[in-house]
Amino acid sequence: MTRPAFGGNTIATIAIPDFRPQMATVRPGVMQKLPRNREAKAEIIDFDAHLEKNNRYVEILDVVKKVSDYVDIQDAKILVSGGRGMQNKENYEKYLRPLANLLGGQVSSSRAGVDQFGIPKELQVGQTGKTVRPKLYIACGISGAIQHLAGMEESDLIIAINKDETAPIFDVADYGIVGDLFQIIPILTKMVEQELAKKAES
């Protein structure tokens, strides 16, 4: 089994050869969903646990579910994600939102964006956020801490934009652009806009 260790600063492979049974939990998004099989059937076993009301008996009186204002990033096919390099919350809306909207995707963030700029926790990608597997993941100003990589490295296509050519994010990226994201993202957005306009004309 592979799991975060030492406060999430490393990923450890755990082997337990001598003890059975074993159990492990898997976070949502870590594995790809199998296609739904409507013909599948499960065995239903009736089991009476003989529960009786006593001083340890729990009764659920009400279930209150918080409704989020944000689309679940785990369902997004395209994510445009920002990190510490975005400098402030306003730049997420100014630079990332237009690109995400053109691509039909969602904006997300690294932990740095959540902790430093107040990006909503629901949009956080990483070990302490959500594990995602979109078809396209664009990392903007994200250095690539191991906690973040654990949450997005299984994306189908990863594009990284960072001014530091030694940033770890480039180790998992399919395509990397070294440079100032505040210059690159507007150019990229304009190019996508032009391509969509061409398709609309044809």
Description:
With 202 residues, the chain is α/β, with parallel strands linked by helices. It has a domain at 74-201: Rossmann fold (3-Layer(aba) Sandwich). The chain is 27% helix and 16% strand. The chain contains 5 helices and 7 strands. The chain has a 5-stranded parallel beta sheet with strand order 4-3-5-6-7. A two-stranded antiparallel sheet has the order 1-2. It starts with a strand and ends with a helix.
The CATH topology of the domain at 74-201 turns out to be Rossmann fold
Provide mean pLDDT, rounded: 90
Treating each run of at least 4 consecutive H or I residues as one helix, how many helices? Answer: 5
Biggest sheet features: 5 strands, parallel
From the alpha carbons, calculate the radius of gyration and give it in angstroms. Answer: 21 Å
What structural class should be given to the helix and strand makeup? alpha/beta
DSSP helix fraction = 25-40%
CATH architecture of the domain at 74-201: 3-Layer(aba) Sandwich
Shape: globular
Strand order of the biggest β-sheet: 4-3-5-6-7
How far apart lie the N and C ends?
51 Å
The percent range for strand residues is: 15-25%
How many β-strands, per DSSP? 7
The CATH class of the domain at 74-201: Alpha Beta
CATH superfamily descriptor of the domain at 74-201: TPP-binding domain
SSE sequence, one letter per element: EEEHEHEHEHEH
Low-confidence stretches: none
